[in-house]
Write a structure and sequence with these properties.
Largest sheet: 8 strands, antiparallel
Strand order of the largest sheet: 17-14-16-15-19-20-18-21
Structural class: alpha+beta
Number of helices: 14
Low-confidence stretches: none
Strand content: 15-25%
Helix content: 25-40%
Mean pLDDT: 94
Distance between the termini: 36 Å
Shape: globular
């Protein structure tokens, strides 16, 4: 069997993403066990006239990874390659789930500085679409990247960093959030730091109070986020700050009751009821928004930043300039109240500082993120369309991995460095080997 054939099979099943809103039928699937096998698969696809896309765990709500060509599954490309304690970096294979990375780093006494609120994605999938958490000073996962290795359309293996040649620096500036358009990422080098403790303070707060105090809450906390429950004036807030300890994790009883029974099990039930009988949603929302009690706990970062998400949904998220958050959110609340929409999922609000990545939603500006969700199987288009109209009026930038309707013409205005990215794409992938319908829409031909 040739190297190009290793790990390859003709596909007979459709691929679906986690939410089930994206379906594609690849011509064949390849599960390479090495970078050499992945490179051979890319060259073979080009020779056969097929497009190539890599897919992680399918947690994107867009069709960023959909293809009718060759689907690369990187689940065998996992694990830590090297740890450089002197320079504070770790190099990890692209198919490694964030959960495995976080646990492995903790065992080594290390941690990422910041992360999102789930850790099921692969490191390459999460960074390529701009996954982020919340932070006053610390930015997205992609902003913590120090180096990248990727297979280009020519079948070459390219290593890039901010310290390389002019071309390598240009690729590094763009490929940290590359949407899979510049090549297939095979390894990522992250900045890490010694393991630390975070104290989380969760408590209910009124919608008007959160917005009135937002600037102060943001300034006083390293990581601040909140959830607003539509049809109510209620929010749940969370503040995460570094702590000298001692460690005081969530008790087993509290974890079972709040994180599993209330936030997942009961939430699943009430959403199912709401989907069947939408008229019940406002009353359910008033109860749900008061179900979680205040609590404080101290633990290592990934146990504070992340939480289980078992209830499936569809999501749209936009980044607006941070100074526009309060007005944008008030308009969203007013829109929901004026409409006959019934929204059972809370609206999530987070922040990020400006970064220097070409297609980062926080590129060049301090940002606030507003995420709207609908329970899986519930019609979401009318709600998302109305929300998107508000977000775009405030110069919003949609999350690349979440539902949106924007196109290349919009992004050329929204991103000052959009042309820089598309010119680099023209150089690295002139024949669009890594293209698909989604990339045609958001990046142009």
């Amino acid at each position: 069997m040739s190297t190009a054939q290793t790990g390859s099979k003709k596909s007979s099943e459709a691929w679906r993403n986690w939410a089930g809103n994206v379906v594609s039928r690849p011509a064949r699937e390849v599960t390479p066990a090495s970078v050499e096998e992945l490179t051979a698969a890319v060259r073979a696809a080009a020779a056969d006239g097929l497009k190539v896309k890599a897919v992680g765990t399918g947690h994107s709500f867009t069709a960023a990874a959909a293809t009718d060509g060759v689907l690369i599954r990187p689940q065998l490309l996992t694990g830590i390659r090297t740890i450089d304690r002197e320079n504070g970096t770790v190099t990890v294979e692209a198919g490694t789930p964030l959960k495995r990375l976080n646990m492995a780093l903790a065992r080594e006494g290390l941690s990422l500085t910041n992360m999102g609120d789930i850790m099921e994605q692969t490191v390459s999938g999460a960074t390529s679409t701009g996954t982020h958490g919340t932070g006053r000073d610390s930015a997205s996962i992609a902003a913590q990247i120090k180096g990248l290795e990727l297979v280009t359309a020519s079948g070459e293996l390219l290593t890039c960093s901010a310290d390389g040649t002019d071309e390598e620096r240009a690729v590094f500036a763009a490929a940290r959030i590359g949407l899979g358009a510049l090549g297939i990422v095979t390894a990522i080098t992250f900045a890490v730091e010694p393991l630390f403790l975070l104290t989380a303070r969760e408590e209910p707060m009124g919608f008007d109070q959160v917005l009135a105090d937002f600037d102060e809450l943001h300034a006083e906390n390293e990581h601040f986020e909140f959830y607003w429950f539509p049809h109510t004036g209620n929010c749940n807030t969370k503040r995460n700050n570094r702590s000298a300890g001692p460690e005081a994790p969530v008790s087993a009883i509290s974890s079972l009751w709040e994180d599993e029974i209330l936030s997942n099990g009961l939430f699943q039930v009430v959403n199912s009821i709401g989907r069947a009988v939408p008229a019940t949603i406002p009353a359910i929302a008033k109860i749900s928004s008061k179900a979680l009690s205040a609590r404080t706990y101290t633990d290592i970062p990934y146990k504070v930043f992340t939480s289980p998400r078992r209830v499936r949904f569809v999501e749209m998220e936009y980044a607006v300039p941070r100074e526009a958050l309060v007005e944008t959110l008030r308009e969203l609340k007013s829109m929901v109240e004026r409409s006959n929409l019934r929204v059972s999922f809370p609206v999530e609000v987070r922040t990020a500082p400006a970064d220097d990545i070409a297609l980062s939603t926080a590129s060049g500006r301090d940002s606030a993120y507003i995420a709207v969700h609908m329970y899986k199987g519930t019609p979401y288009q009318r709600y998302f369309t109305a929300a998107e109209r508000i977000f775009t009026a405030h110069e919003g930038r949609p999350h690349w991995g979440k539902v949106h309707t924007r196109d290349a013409e919009y992004f050329a205005q929204a991103y000052p460095r959009f042309g820089e990215f598309t010119k680099l794409r023209d150089r690295l992938d002139p024949d669009r080997l890594f293209g698909n319908a989604y990339l045609r829409r958001v990046l142009g031909d």
